[in-house]
Amino acid sequence: MIKVQIKDAERFLDQKVSTLQGRVEDVHDMIRNKSGLGNDFLGWLDLPVSINQEELARIKKLKEQYKDLDCLVVIGIGGSYLGAKAGLEFLKTPFKKSKPEIIFAGHHLSANYLKHLLKYLNKKNYAINVISKSGTTTEPAVAFRLLKQHIEEKYGIDEARRRIFATTDKARGSLYQLAKNEGYERFVIEDTVGGRFSVLTSVGLLPFVFAGIDVDGLLNGAKDAYMDAQTPDLKKNQAYLYAATRYLLSQSGKDVEYLVNYEPRLTFFAEWWKQLFGESEGKNHLGLLVASASFTTDLHSLGQQIQDGKRIIFETVLNVKKTDKLTIPWDQNNLDQLNYIADKEISYVNEQAMLGTKEAHVDGLVPNIVITIGKLDSYHFGYLVYFFEIACAMSAYLLGVNPFDQPGVEAYKKNMFRLLGKK
Ligand SMILES: O=P(O)(O)OC[C@H]1O[C@H](O)[C@H](O)[C@@H](O)[C@@H]1O
């Protein structure tokens, strides 16, 4: 389960978060009745209880069929990349090599990366999962063109076709057309599910199944978050409590929200979270600037600025209750002067660092929201995904923006296409 604590944020506000209850109820109804802006894109809302079982079964079958793979190359960007990457990092045992190794590509245009990837794949037994909702995004399309050529040369056209799985629209886009023509195994991203809300579809599930992640546990977590979000009551709905608090902080002059973690496995989760909130709210010259920090690492770099720079920041701390047990050994000579914490668990030291940091930052006028989760397992990953998705819808609607479009993203694309001479 998860717990949201707002006391170190609410004390900076002129009004209690509970005073928003009425507006939260209106937005809750708007989401449920699908009457708000962008309401065509609420297909993710019931995903935890309406997973496409047919696709999940096909994914599991594919995994069985290709159980000896060295690598699965997952091609995608934005919502077609970050959820799977965040999940794999969240759930991975450090230094443990996974088989198959999940390699991501198509999330940038680095020739250096792609060239070495092709070379690396020469000696690997691999398959490809190419993911693009629109089926027209440049970065994954470029990577896929290169990899398609590589896999066809390596295995011959027929076997290559069996080793390429495409996750895309059900009837539109160049990837859809290509996949259909070539006869690739296809998985569908429904029109009603935007990219950044798609991790609980085959977009995330295929890489998760191949990586051996406990998908049932993950879906159970998402389902519990879904159940917990049925009520608009701020005393019970933790996601809405978080959304309402960050909304009031933004109204009170805070411009930046840092998502802070004390476990490096959460670093990529913050990247997913940044797309979710950044693309959903950053429009009409509104929305919090979303940033992230991994502590205690970044306390030795960004810490100064958070403590003492412009007072426009608040933090949302992702606190993990249960981690591994490891104690600091006693040392006879004590030259490093650490015997005062000898025999203490490292997680205890980390916790004191967290408490000390919170106290210092709050004293330095940086409000803190704390979100505590039990542990870094598939259940909690699934829970947090849905928790933040529903919080994001609430938060964006409170702000008065359409959470589900991203018109601003086209600006750079237009210029890039012009510069590249696209007709
Ligand atoms: O899945 P795709 O259609 O390839 O889109 C991938 C990503 O790129 C776009 O430009 C959007 O800004 C993102 O919202 C999207 O997730």
Automatic annotation (TrEMBL):
It catalyses: alpha-D-glucose 6-phosphate = beta-D-fructose 6-phosphate. Pathway: Carbohydrate degradation; glycolysis; D-glyceraldehyde 3-phosphate and glycerone phosphate from D-glucose: step 2/4; Carbohydrate biosynthesis; gluconeogenesis. GO terms for biological process: gluconeogenesis; glucose 6-phosphate metabolic process; glycolytic process. One of its GO terms (cellular component) is cytosol. PROSITE patterns: P_GLUCOSE_ISOMERASE_1 (PS00765), P_GLUCOSE_ISOMERASE_2 (PS00174), P_GLUCOSE_ISOMERASE_3 (PS51463). Keywords: Cytoplasm, Gluconeogenesis, Glycolysis, Isomerase. It is an enzyme of class 5 (isomerase). It is found in: Cytoplasm. The keyword Isomerase applies. Pfam families: PGI. Gene3D superfamilies: Glucose-6-phosphate isomerase like protein, domain 1. Its EC number is 5.3.1.9. The active site is at E279 (proton donor), K413. The keyword Protein transport does not apply. One of its GO terms (molecular function) is glucose-6-phosphate isomerase activity. InterPro entries: G6P_Isomerase, Phosphoglucose_isomerase_CS, SIS_dom_sf, SIS_PGI_1, SIS_PGI_2. Belongs to the GPI family. NCBIfam families: PRK14097.1. HAMAP family: G6P_isomerase. Catalyzes the reversible isomerization of glucose-6-phosphate to fructose-6-phosphate. This is Glucose-6-phosphate isomerase. The gene is pgi.
